[in-house]
Amino acid sequence: MVVMRRRTALRTLFALTVAAVTGAALSRAALFDETYKGRRIQGRRMYGGELDVRVDGRRLHLMRCADGGYLSPVDHYRSYPTPLAATRAAVDELGPARLAEGGAAHGVHA
Asked: Where are the domains of the chain?
């Protein structure tokens, strides 16, 4: 009887641990993946916390602001509260134009 309760408790604990770890990993990996104004925008968190944001497969560099928001080289006059909001603002600013192939970023020189 005691062995059965211990085994059930250990199984439950294991299942809860797996669920917590999997949930945390998935929430960090998938930020957003949607179509916005006909453009595919994707954002995910890389190992180490860096953001990988793409518009139609091309990298959009996002920078973290002192106020906790985000901005991009496409629309760097205003801070947005989330990476998704900053990416949508960049798409709005781009209109029909495409991002440069290399994904321009401040402080990066060829």
From this structure: 1-29, 31-94
Cross-strand partners of 35: 40
State how far the Cα of 57 lies from the Cα of 87, in Å rounded to an integer: 13
Q: Per the confidence metrics, is the pTM higher than 0.85?
A: no
Architecture in CATH of 31-94: 2-Layer Sandwich (3.30)
Q: Assess contact for 43 and 31: CB atoms under 8 A.
A: yes
Mean pLDDT per block of 10 residues along the chain (110 residues) reads 66 62 50 96 92 96 94 91 96 93 54
